[in-house]
Predict the structure of HD domain-containing protein.
Amino acid sequence: MDDQKDHSSPQGSVAAAAGPVPTNVMGLSPVFTDPLWRISVRLNPVEVDLLRTAPLRRLHFVAHGGASTLSTLQSYSRLEHTLGVLALVAHFRPEDQLLRVAALLHDVGHLPLSHTLEGISGLDHHALGLQLLRTEPLRPALEKHGISAEAVIAALGVQPPSPLTHRSGLLNLDHLDSYVRSGRAAGRLDTDPAVILGRLDLKEAAVSADRATAASLVGLVCAEARLHTSWDNVGPVSAVRRLACRLLDHTTLDPDRLARMTDPQLWSAFDSCAATRAESAMIRYELHRLRVTAGGAPGDSSGWAFSLRKIYRSAPLVEGQRIEVSAPELAAELDALRALPTTFRVRWS
């Protein structure tokens, strides 16, 4: 029929091709829509430029869940989380350009597999992020739009308290996105994230919720803590850390180069090194053989020791008040997380 297009022809293909999807992560259309929160963000020119820099693009190839992506379905990237935090800032503080930029840049220092390799050879993603902000290509991208790297660094600091990095035990926007995004991946959400968002506010640079929503958030915090202390996290994380240390010991790779790898590059390096190749394959294809024991028996020298660096217990405000005052039963749930094990013995069966 005359009105049918020949989609096999170049002209037909162009005519039929869809435009950039609303969830674009390259700024090819003026709006980014976060699929979790369903917040549409009209991107500013500086945000578009930053999304096209190598440090931001790299986060698309770094798993937010770290090595636990091997044992769970938390397969989303560090960039997806970063854009989620941008969406939250744009929702609560739409006109705060500096805070929006800080949201985009708050995780640029992350190592491959995110927190998995933190601390190896003294590597710290916060310090690495500050270095990246002060150098190319991020510094000139910011200065092009009249924003100094030092201003962004200040927006990520402790004082004055920032809704991105509140470190007084209160829930900030960075952790809010992490808990809810992880909860979705694990099937733990009992409420639509967009509904949760409508019940939240920022008070004193911290997330505040009504009592029922605060209870849901505390449930997500506790579930995440239990995940971090479980076999699903301890097993793969401890094994990959061991491989990374061996890689540094047996190759010319230095810690700075390791820190800037993507996840695929790290696995390729493991496969290319004789000292890590066999166990790298075991971690990916025979992970069920890992055995994890909390604490470990006295004198047990089998396998290797592993300690969690920290367990996150950040609490939302409840109707603007500290949770200890307004909902002591929820505060008790968070306090009970102190009893979770943080030291383990791990071995291959």
